[in-house]
Amino acid sequence: MPVMNHTLKNHLCKLPIGTVIVGKWHKHAYKIVKTLGNGANGVVYLAESMKGLVAIKLSDNSTSIASEVNVLKRFSKVQGVALGPSLLDVDDWFDPYTNRLIPFYIMEYIEGEEFFTFVKKRGKEWIVILMLQLLSALDKLHQEGWVFGDLKPENLLVAGMPPTVRLLDVGGTTLQGRAIKEFTEFYDRGYWGLGSRKADPAYDLFAVAMMMIHAYYQVKFERKENARQQLLMIIQADATLRKYRNVLIKAIDGKYKQAMEMKRDLVAAIHYDDLLQKENHSPTKKQNHRKTKKRSGIIETTLIVVTLLFVYVLYLYGQVL
Amino acid sequence: MRKGTLRQILLITDGCSNHGEDPIAMAALAKEQGITINVIGVLDQDMMDENGLREVEGIAMAGGGISQVVYAKQLSQTVQMVTRKAMTQTLQGVVNKELKQILGSNVSLEDLPPEKRGEVMEIVDELGETVELEVLILIDTSGSMKTKLPTVKEALFDLSLSLNARIGDNQFSVFVFPGKRGDVEKVLDWTPKLEQLSSVFPKLTSGGLTPTGPALREAVSYFNKKRSLRSLIASDESYFEESSM
Q1: What is the pLDDT of residues A11-51, one digit of tens each?
Q2: What is the DSSP pairing of strand B170-177 with strand B132-140?
Q3: Of A3, A92, A196, which is closest to B161 when you measure between CB atoms?
Q4: Contact A66 B121 (CB under 8 A)
Q5: Which of A26, A133, B98, B128 is the most buried (most CB within 10 A)?
């Protein structure tokens, strides 16, 4: 984003392949293999270590490193689902080029593909499935009292077999009730004028809706005067988005308080068409069923009338005697 | 930890000052009084000239703050990011100072083993969320800045959206320079609602001199005026002093 790059940051982004980074405190060594990504708060490299391939994040900003480490530690406490990469080491590196201590941390290296790359390769039917997976992961995170914050396709990685969505870059992860730490305008409800930047589960769910819109609509668009109306029109313009219209609008309006509610509605929307088709396939059978029901009703009535008549005849007979 | 207030001046400009005192000196003056100065340089399509760039960086450095040069389009995200980053930086300075008092004069966050830093960061995070913040926004409206003013306004709304999501209170005020009569003119007095700006912003006229130095000086004295007024009402008010990092 900034035009002018900090010289130190620039240098950190261009560490030569083969550079060996040794921690000052724990003395573990990591040899740089290639760049994995450049963020606002640092750079991530693939590196070789004693334990195999790892991801290393370096930054000249020790505060952002320290708070990301805090979040990663918390992530590991969220049981059951693999949310983000697991944290392996935290240390400082004495950088001989600048004579400065550079803080860094080591994460598990997740080999996978970025969300959009994966969808392009494997087909659009994966979008909604990955979103369902994401909603389950978010639900776990929300239940622990956190909000992911900077949800965007670039922070989603699809890895493994079966393909599973993983969250990357925890820089935006915020305690519920606090101000969102990091965000990206297009996926931020504040930018669209549709809510605050206070961290609550609905903040993440808005971003999920925007990711779906982006994934199906494919072009990223600019905000206009009446943002809500603009989003509704875009949803209306695409056949698949139209199918999920009610879910998307509810998420955009912040009506979902929990990720699982949105997941439930999304599942229902996926199968809505199937249900309609099934009903269309078996209309005759249903009518037959109704006819038999009607007939049995008639039989019932006749039986009652006959019984009553019989009782009446018995009564009359008794009177005569 | 004591409750306090962070004081910042956010300068939004697109180039060189050409009138009055050296703005870098005025920034150093502000820092001495515990006021942090952040500077955002706004570009058109071309690059900012070397002198402008040096001034933007110089003011922020002397003012103990952060500088960033961006295209007008990216202003919104930059303004809120710079303000928050500067807050964290100042708060970290404060926490570092406390650490030194507890652990000895040569200890800072970097000297702690990485495992311990997390706890310190939690304190900084907590403070950043709850501390009171006063931001005086100083906008250069001279010459070529005129076309960028709608974008500046949008960025300021965005800033209030971000800061008002915090638990702690905010106070904003907006000044522009050059003013209609003097070097600088107040367009919005201290208020927690930066959105009120919409009613005053269109009145601006731009052109002429760029008195960045005098504008900074007046902004600092405006802060002090507020402080002395406050101290009449409540004397236990405390401010976080900017400490060397």
Answers
A1: 888 899 999 999 999 999 999 999 998 877 789 999 999 98
A2: parallel
A3: A196
A4: yes
A5: B128
* In-domain check, residue A302: no
Which residues in chain B are closer than 8 Å to A179, comparing Cβ atoms?
Answer: 129, 162-163, 165-166
Is there a single domain that holds both residue A87 and residue A135?
no
DSSP letter assigned to residue A119: H
Residue type, A109: Y
Same domain, A135 and A228: yes
Residue B35 forms part of a structural domain: yes
CA gap A117, B30 in Å, rounded: 50
What's the pLDDT score for residue A257? 96
Active-site annotation holder among A91, A95, A150, A169: A150
Mean pLDDT of A291-307: 74
Q: Which of residues 112-151 of B touch A (CB under 8 A)?
A: 113-115, 117-118, 120-122, 124-125, 129
In terms of domains, do A140 and A256 share one? Answer: yes
Amino acid symbol at B203: K
Instruction: Please write the tens of the pLDDT for every residue from A160-217.
Output: 889 999 988 888 899 999 999 899 999 999 999 999 999 999 999 999 999 999 999 9
What percent helix, strand, coil does chain A show, rounded to 5?
Answer: 50, 20, 30
pLDDT over 80 at A281, yes or no: no
B46 — phi, psi (to 5°)? -85, 175
The pTM score is 0.81
Is A103's Cβ below 8 Å from some Cβ in B? yes
Q: Domain residues for A98?
A: 7-108
